[in-house]
Structures are given as structure tokens and as C-alpha cells.
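Q: What would this complex look like in 3D?
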Amino acid sequence: MKYEALQQLVDGARQIVFFGGAGVSTESGIPDFRSVDGLYHQKYDYPPEQILSHTFFMKRPEEFFRFYRDKMLPLDAKPNAAHLKLAQWEQEGKLIGVVTQNIDGLHQAAGSRKVFELHGSIHRNYCMKCGRFYAPEYIRDSRDPVPCCECGGRIKPDVVLYEEGLDNDVVSGAVHAISKADLMIVAGTSLTVYPAAGLLRYFRGSHLVLINRDATPVDDECELVIHDKVGEVLGSLA
Ligand code: ZN
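A: Here is my prediction, written as C-alpha cells for the whole assembly.
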């Protein structure tokens, strides 16, 4: 019933924008790295949100990269039904952008091109000294605890750490897409989490849909709310 309602909204939309969080990638086997669970506490002396901060990266790079290699480089993960459906809609000309909080690059792997990665990407890595580019495999396979450039500089993943600001160009691209959309699908995130809540203000379309496994405090504000897995929902649509 709800899936049919969503299908009707998608059929009637001309410019869909998708806003996704960690829940979009869980069906690809990627856990929400920001959720603190017992496993992290057993293995690491610090909570993930502290390890993934700019201060920590600068002061304790060995510990940072131990966690980063272990938890944040799922280079063998594959796009799931949600990623594939969004790429298909873009191909068909009815989706104008994917705004994501994920850093795994799975939307691009599925074929999406208009992707706004608010928190950066594990697929881009730069030398902090000379700016040389490195593939994520270099970080994964480096024998040094802290991966270094040929010039001796430290390599930094192009992901937005805690205490760091979002990229202005990415944010304005996301705002532009959201402000033009007539249907906005928010999925795998609760709308209360930064920056989702702020970006939502720019949506001027008439149809707002939320797909999230758990209830959120803003369910009442959405036209349609579906509490299921994102891939299951989108994968069932045409
Ligand atoms: Zn360098």
C-alpha cells in the first residue's frame, strides 16, 4: 500500500532529489561507523567520534589510521538495490541529484553522476604537503602505520572529520538540487541530524517522503513515511 503510494509519487515527479544517510549503505554491509557499539569499545581506547576528529587525526595519526583501515575502507562493498534504482532514475532523467552523508562512493559505483558527498569520500586522498592524489588501496596496503607521500608528507583522506567544515561547493550544489526538486526522498537517516535538518529548509516542492527503519521525531511532518530497509523499498519500485 505504502509502496504503491511512493510509486505514484515517483511516477508523478519530474525532478526527484534523494537525501541519504548511513541506512542507505547498511544493506551493502557497511555499518554506521558513527554508531557507538560495544565492539569499538573493546578494541579501541577512544569512541569513534573522538578518533574521527581533526584534532585526533593530527595528534594520534597511528591510532586514527588503525581505526580508519579497519572500519572505514570497505573497498569490496557493492551497491545495493537503492543505489542502483537511483542511478536508473538519473539515467531516465527524473532524478536531479543524490545528496549523501556517506563516504563509500557506492552511488558512483552504481552509475550515479550527480552526487553531492557532504562528508567527502574515501576514494580521494591527498598529500597534505604537496597535494598529490592517492587511491584508497594505497592507504589500505601501506606498510607504514601512517601512510606517507613520496615527498614525506602525511596523506589525508578527503573525508570531513569532526571539527571540520563541509565543502562549500558541495553544499551549494546540494542546496541548488534540493531547491529545484518537486519530490524529496529522505532515506536512512533521521531528519534531525545535522546537516539534514538545515538542508531540508531549502526544499520547496510539495512531496516529502521519509524511508527509515526506525521512527523519527519528524515522521509527522512527512507526506509519506515508510519504516523499512531502503534497498528493499526502492528496489521494489519501477
Ligand atoms: Zn607529497
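A: To summarize the key features: The pocket of zinc ion is lined by residues 127, 129-130, 132, 149, 151, 153 (CB under 6 Å). The beta strands are 16-20, 95-100, 115-117, 120-127, 133-134, 155-159, 183-187, 207-211, 224-226.
Q: Very helpful, thank you.
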